[in-house]
Structures are given as structure tokens and as C-alpha cells.
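Internal ticket - ligand job 461, manganese (II) ion:
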Amino acid sequence: MTDPKTFIEANKERLLDELFSLLRIPSISADPAYNADVAKCAEHIAEQMKSLGLDAVEIFPTAGHPIVYGECLVDPDLPTVLVYGHYDVQPADPIDLWDNDPFEPIIKNTTIHPEGAIFARGACDDKGQMFMHLKAFEIMKSNGEIPCNIKFMIEGEEEVGSSNLEPFVASHKEKLACDTILISDTGMISNTTPSITTGLRGLSYVEVEVTGANRDLHSGLYGGAVANPLNVLAKMVASLHDDNGQITVEGFYDGVEIVSTEERALMAKAPFSQEEFKESIGIGDVWGEEGYSTPERTSIRPTLDVNGMWGGYTGEGAKTVIPSKAYAKISMRLVPGQNPEAITEKFIKHFKAIAPDSVAINVTPHHGGLPYVTHTTNPAYQAASKAYEKTFGKAALPVRSGGSIPIVALFEQQLGTKSILMGFGLDSDAIHSPNEHYGVFNYFKGIETIPYFYENYAKQN
Ligand code: BES
Ligand code: MN
Ligand code: MN
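stdout (C-alpha cells):
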């Protein structure tokens, strides 16, 4: 194959400009105020696909945001790769903490990205990474060498739980049939230590409502005699972990896969500095489950976290009140052996059981997702691994990630196909945060590496 590097070198500016156009569309899936932009983004991608010469390009409407599809089927005897990605992004808030307009991308150098990074919402998660696949296809096409059949499915609801993608997959099994699924929506260890993601955590997400009195009360007239739902909620939340950092929800760890000593030893070989970790996020010390290292705590162990907690008076100055209600949004990251529905049920039962009679509890489940693991023996992993060796000059390490992409386990259930997670982002890229960015190096390296994946994968089959 003609070296993709040559193409990238000659087209640098255009490759950046085209990504910038995509990043300028505020395709925030969670906020209905942006529905028209989400639709516009789907059209933009469909136009890109058409101009690359993909066939059967179609925008599939759903009950939520549309799915964009396009394909290039070269030969029924060749293997078929389904590329999945998402064009929707997280809301940009808190907007004040951005140094630039989140939808007006700019390039700035950082310590970690001395060759520049693209600052914009979605730069890394997932527009920048998804777009690499279209550009890698462009390279293969311009070389006249498309080694596999390729199908692209880019959705617009990943950040809100992919709830309409599941029925779409279930009803388009024939259309989406493939030998492997290729996804760039995760990260790697660093720009000098490439890694391939072999696991994702699952997710169970609930919202709790604690109700005390039937109205807000004067905290002088009633204070001391009536339970304050915020005080009660704080105590209940605090009790969800014991002194060893273990989660106290009854049966929470039932069935949790015990990772072998060998795999833990292998994990421990991946470069990690506790000091740099602490410094990078400005903490005095780490916290977590006794008996596990920081990388283990964020990958092979389940967690429980409060994402937000509110109630009562939070405005200017002081108002003396015992609020009637208190709320919290709680997420639990799950590992193999745990099931999101079962965990949600266990949480609800436990949370109601620990509540005092002075309050009433209501729990609303939100979206969830199953965990996912794949093995390094997977032929697609091998093809990816060789591709990284070619472009980074060294082998990629297998790493389980702490994040979740619930649709990956559903692909396996519905299509019977494993996914290979070739992510090029870095943990420090601030996805979902203000000043999200994606390294220019990472963008180009991804575009360079992907064509080798296809080449290797086709050769194996
Ligand atoms: N791309 C991320 C997931 C991710 C990031 C996995 C980095 C591994 C490394 C995805 O867009 C995401 O944000 N997922 C959500 C869950 C989803 C249901 C909203 C998450 O992990 O919180
Ligand atoms: Mn993503
Ligand atoms: Mn995300």
C-alpha cells in the first residue's frame, strides 16, 4: 500500500479544515434546543460519505436522532468490517470554563500535545475519532486499494444512551452483518505507549428523590424535630461505601469476575505513575477500594458515584429552610459478571431499606449498559496490533478501560460480532469537560494506522 503518511503530509490543512467544519455544528443530543443542529450534523456526514463515493448512503430517522449509514462492498469473498462511531456530543456546560467557543475549534499547543491539539466539544469524543475513519477510507480509495468490505454506521445518540440504536440494529441485522466491528471512541495510554482497549465497563444509572415534610419548613420553627431530607440523603449516600472503599449495596459484588493474577500482573506492567496521576488532576491523595491499584480501580472493579446532588436553597445569600425534597443522580460502573438491570434492582431495594421512616424514597432508573471484554486472541485484535506496530514502531498494550459504550455489548448480543476498540484519545483530553481537545498527532496517527488494520485483517481471512 502507498504509505498513508504521504497522503496525510500532502493534505494536512484540508484534513484539519474538514474536521473543523464538523466540529462547528453543535450536535448536542441531550438538549432538544439543538435538535436542528443534530439533524444538520447527520446531513453533513451523509454528504461527506457521498463525496467519498460510498454507496447506499442513507440517513435513517429514529424516534430520537438519526443514524447515518454508508457502505463500500468490494467483494463478497472478502471480510466485512462495520465501522461504528457517534456524531453527537455532550453539552458544553459549564461554558464559562472554556477558553474558546466550544463550537469554534482552535489549535493550541499543550505540554502533552507539543504538536498542537484541537480544542472543541467533540474534538476527541467522538467527532475527531469517528472522522479519522472516513479520511482513512479516502486514503484507501485514492490508492485504489480497498482490502475489505466496509460499512459505516454513525449514530447521534451515544451520549444519551443509544436507546434508538438498539431496535435499529435488531431490525437491520442483514444490512449490518459483518465479521468485525471497528470503533475509535476510547483512548490509549500515551502518544509514546499505544494501547488497544480490550474492555469497557457497564453502567447502571439512577436518580433518587428523598421526601420529608409535605412542604418546605421554617428551619427555626420546625428544625430539630423534623428530618431534613438533605441531611438524610447525605448520610445515606455516605453509607454506600464502607471504610475499605467497598460498596455496601447488598449483593453488589455477586458474580463479579475475578481477574486472574496473571492478567493483573500484565496490567501492572503498563506504565503508570501515581504521582503524575495525582498531579494531573490536582489531588492530594488517591482514594478507592482496598487491595487494588489505581489502574485496577478504574478498569476491573465496579464503582458507585454521585454525579450530582441538590435540593433546598442554593441561591444568593441565606434562606432558613428545611427543604421538603432532596435529590441525587448516582451512577454505578459495572464489570463482567454484573447486569445493569439486576444492579439497579439491588440498589433500589438497598436504598429503600436503609432509609429512616422520617422520609419517603423514590428511585427512577435511567439508561444502563452491559460491560464488554474481548481477548487479544481475537483476529481483529491481532490485525490492529500489527497496524500499531507499523505506525508507532512498537507493540500496543491491551488495556481495559473504565468508560462505557453500552452498544458494544449489544452488538455482540444482536449481531454476534465482537468489536475492536482502536481509540486514539488520551485521558487528559478532557472529554465531557470544558476545553475538550484532541491531539493533532493523534488525529493524523489514527488516519495513518486505520488503513493498515484493513490490510492486515483482509490478509488473515
Ligand atoms: N467515548 C465515551 C466512552 C469512553 C471514553 C470509553 C474513553 C473509554 C474511554 C462515550 O462517548 C461515553 O461518554 N460514554 C458514557 C456512557 C454513555 C451511556 C453516556 C460514559 O462512559 O459515561
Ligand atoms: Mn464517545
Ligand atoms: Mn462521551
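Auto-summary: The radius of gyration is 23 Å. The pocket of BES (ligand 1) is lined by residues 125-126, 158-159, 161, 185-187, 203, 367, 369, 401, 403-406 (CB under 6 Å).
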